[in-house]
Amino acid sequence: QRMSSDEIRSAFLQFYVDRGHRLVPSASLVPDDPTILLTIAGMVPFKPIFLGEREAPQPPRAVSAQKCVRTTDVENVGRTRRHHTFFEMLGNFSFGDYFKRQAMVWAWELLTQVYGLPAERLAVSVFESDDEAYRIWRQVVGVPAHRIARMGESDNFWASGPTGPCGPCSEIYYELVPATGAGGNAVSAEAVDLGDDARFIELYNLVFMEFNRDATGQLTPLAAKNIDTGMGLERLAQVLQGVPNNYETDLIRPIVDEAASLAGCVYDSAAEDARTSLKVIGDHTRAVVHLLADGVRPSNMGRGYVLRRLIRRLVRHGRLVGVDGPFVAEVAEVAIRLAAASGYQQVQRRREEIVRELAAEESRFLSTLLRGEALLEEILQSGMPVVSGTDAFTLYDTYGFPVEMTQEIAGERGLQVDMQAFDQCMAEQRERARGQSAFHGAGDGAASHRHAVRTVAAAVNGESGGTRFVGYD
Ligand code: ATP
Ligand code: MG
Ligand code: MG
Ligand code: MG
Description:
Blueprint: H1 5-17, E1 22-23, H2 47-50, E2 61-69, E3 86-94, H3 100-114, E4 122-127, H4 131-141, E5 148-151, H5 153-156, E6 157-159, E7 164-175, E8 200-213, E9 219-232, H6 233-241, H7 253-263, H8 272-293, H9 302-320, H10 328-341, H11 345-349, H12 351-381, E10 386-387, H13 389-397, H14 403-412, E11 416-417, H15 419-437, H16 444-462
Parallel strand pairs: 1-2, 4-5, 10-11
Antiparallel strand pairs: 2-3, 3-9, 4-7, 6-7, 7-8, 8-9
Helix pairs in contact: 3-4, 7-8, 7-10, 8-9, 8-10, 8-12, 9-12, 10-12, 13-15
This protein binds adenosine-5'-triphosphate (ATP) and magnesium ion (3 copies).
One magnesium ion is lined by residues 155, 202.
Function: Catalyzes the attachment of alanine to tRNA(Ala) in a two-step reaction: alanine is first activated by ATP to form Ala-AMP and then transferred to the acceptor end of tRNA(Ala). Also edits incorrectly charged tRNA(Ala) via its editing domain.
Family: Belongs to the class-II aminoacyl-tRNA synthetase family. Alax-L subfamily.
Subunit structure: Monomer.
């Protein structure tokens, strides 16, 4: 009997509620924090508590299923089995209460006892110098030495951004394909390579949040030792539902199937590229529906630009897979139905508005997409070694191609975009806009400039490389 994703989510929440955690509903994707562009992890709403800026709740424990958007993973969408832009992060949190040992013991108990994952298929990583975590896995939990990997800062030191609360972490991986033998019993005694994506999938990250990093990079111990954890619901569903990737779980598959039917194909027998596009549609549809439900509207900067980029990618992948004409409203209806059934009431309440906004943005883009594609094709076939900044700017300004999309399409053909020249074109456009706004009253330009600067800062702090500043609204 396979667990549905709703059952998987409930089991997580109940496990920690039973252990004294308060159930906290998912916060908005738009954080109440000017330094962060979008909610990228379950800890974001609790950041002030970790930093000691807000008093810890009583009891000092929380559990949540937090919706997240990570634009930094957009290139992985549809290509890896495990990455999305939008996903749900299951997390348990301790604010100066329990620490390492308890968090590790519970995480292991949850995976093996509640979800029934065979212990011999699990493996863990610890931060290279974290002997304490190593010893707890080894001696308290009983993980064999060859199933514990010591890893460096990039994988096992977690931070929500360049500054803020952070600390060493320990991750639990599931072995999708046992190294030897069938049935998952005969596992080799070789040291595990957790970077082997074909064999291992990272499920659960336990962050031992002990430090605050300031703007100079300096780490100072936080007043309290905290626990911050995260486990992707879609990944757990992949493993528990026995499907080859997150997109085939009950969370996303119905959207993929709807897209396939609109395109007149069948996912299971579709070619590799078509499958990738169908997965992108499955992912981006969820992302844009939830972003719109949380009040984000398409625009040319900040969060609005993230949304615009995702909608335009969605439209483009629809065309790539052979959908003719508008389709976004139809896949969105499926995503809305799924979200509503999982308890996202705001999505249900704002259903009409979401569909209307999507259809409007889709038609704005569709009206120029064909001509833009033709122009880009011409450029790509011209034999030029790079796509010039002026061409990329024309595609952006006249045809509505987010420059990241031009980069991506060019990249698929082995070409680069002259981004320096593109940025120059953008700067010139801003100058022109400033000149114009002087006619409409002094101050406008300065105010929007300040706004723009803040947005850039937010983008950089929140998700490095996650978004670009591309002009005024
Ligand atoms: P990976 O190494 O696989 O990219 P990560 O180390 O970047 O994952 P964390 O920041 O540790 O991920 O996030 C905690 C958990 O959230 C992960 O263990 C995973 O289960 C889930 N998760 C992270 N990023 C994504 C994503 N883009 N899509 C779906 N789930 C994700
Ligand atoms: Mg990652
Ligand atoms: Mg990782
Ligand atoms: Mg991780």
